[in-house]
Amino acid sequence: MRMKRGLILLLSFILSMSSVFAYDLIWPKQKETVTDKDYALFVGRARNAESIVINDKRIYTAPNGAFAHTVKLKEGNNRIVVRSNYSAQVYRFRKENKPVIDEPLKEFEPKCAIVKTDETPLRSTPESYGMNRISHLFKDTTVLVNGSKGNFYRVFLSKDKTAWIEKKDVCLTDKTDSNPAQFITMDSKKFKNASIQTVKFSKNLPFTIEDLDNEIIFRIYNPELSESSVYTVNIPKPEKYTYTTALKNGEYTFKVSSLPVEIENSVIVIDAGHGGSEKGAVGCLGDEEKNLNLRIALELAEMLRLLGANVVMTRECDGNMSLGERVELAKHNHANIFISIHHNSIGNTEFKLYKHRGTSVYYFNKNAKNLASCIEKSVSKTAGTRKDGVRQASFFVIRPTEYTGVLVETAYMINPFDSVLYTSEDFAKNAAAGIANGILEFLNK
Ligand SMILES: [Zn+2]
């Protein structure tokens, strides 16, 4: 009996020894996966100079053990073997392709449709993603629709312009209105830091916005009256600007404002991405993105306050906050600048060690492109990250035009090189200093 217990103790000791030396996998979470993705992602940490081989390919391992690798999946069953000095594990992926349905366009006689809520996207293609937003329509706007494709109606704006709106966002009426909208009045006012244009119609009509090099063009369409009835308002814009659009009882108010020059007069919102149950991306060593984002956000807040800025934080601790609440908070505080702090992931693509690495900064509106490029340059300088680029993308928190908004992807959570950087003691401070310098450079330029 005693011998047997001794043997069990010895066995469990050997087992625990081997687990000390075995790698930890963050992804995949289980041995068998059904997926429609093109790549299987393997991310983890090797122990004590353990070398990792995935399907006979030796994988780079950083000094801290971090490794990441993708395997291209073929349709059907895929068997992937992860080998280390101490064990070999088999992972099975079943790839099932999602059917692609391309529904045909059905055309019909023009009908009126009423927009149900504010912020309804009007799009250039019948897809609910990507950079295809033309404007955001207000509740109770009347649009003419004359076709349907999938989940979208085609909106007739004028004989030269059509757009798309999601079916769920409008109420269709049976016929065209017998009472087409009439133009009533137009006015323009110029102030030191803003210019305001108003245009009034007898009902709410659809509009588009074009942000050009020297001016912003607002267009209001009245296709019920005639196929070529378009009202155009050109507003010259300063170098650093924000703009707002409001609609009440048929009256549009377009306002273009210049940004404060001094940081002391600026309201800067710092948004630490994710939080609470939303962890964001997870790194090779198990670090959670939400925590890294918050660390940088807190350092940045302190630095900007020392510089005299009015700082508002969307979260100062680890809690849940919706994207809508973050934007509302910024609008409520009349934010001039909005900085959303994140760390990158790679999505459904092949992981490349030297490409998916470093700092990228995203903007949606043209007014934030310069800020994005100032921050990308200065963060890579202070935090020692690779310059990964300045890109345009449709992220919720940077879409409003009321402020100059950018989203900083400080580093890649799963890149082994980056994991060495973002786990180092001074990284948050250095990244924050880079963002602060970028803001200062943008304001002073
Ligand atoms: Zn994120």
Report the sheet with the most strands, covering strand number, pairing sense and barrel closure.
6 strands, mixed
Question: What is the total domain count?
Answer: 3
Would you state the CATH class of the largest domain?
Alpha Beta
User: Main sheet: which strands, in order across?
Assistant: 24-23-25-28-26-27
What oligomeric arrangement do these chains adopt?
single chain
State the CATH superfamily name of the largest domain: Zn-dependent exopeptidases
| Residue share in helix | 10-25%
How many E-type strands?
28
> Which structural class do you get from the secondary structure elements?
alpha+beta
User: Which ligands are bound?
Assistant: zinc ion
Do you know the CATH topology of the largest domain? Aminopeptidase
Please tell me the CATH architecture of the largest domain by its name: 3-Layer(aba) Sandwich
Question: Segments where pLDDT lies below 50 for 5+ residues?
Answer: 13-21
Let me know the average pLDDT.
Answer: 93
Describe the structure.
The chain has 445 residues and is α+β, with helices and mostly antiparallel strands. The protein folds into 3 domains: 23-95, Immunoglobulin-like, CATH 2.60.40.10; 101-258, Immunoglobulin-like (Sandwich); 263-444, 3-Layer(aba) Sandwich (Aminopeptidase). The chain is 20% helix and 40% strand. It has helices at 2-21, 289-306, 323-332, 369-383, 416-422, 427-444; strands spanning 24-27, 32-35, 39-45, 52-54, 57-59, 66-72, 76-83, 88-95, 106-115, 120-123, 133-137, 142-149, 152-158, 161-166, 170-172, 183-190, 194-201, 207-211, 215-221, 230-236, 241-248, 251-258, 267-272, 310-313, 337-344, 359-363, 387-392, 404-412. The strands form 7 sheets. It has a 6-stranded mixed sheet. Strands 2-8-7-4-5 form a 5-stranded mixed sheet, with no helix packed on it. Helix 2 crosses helix 6 and helix 4 runs antiparallel to helix 6. It is flat, with a radius of gyration of 27 Å. The termini are far apart. The structure holds zinc ion. Residues 273-274, 280, 289, 342 line the site of zinc ion.
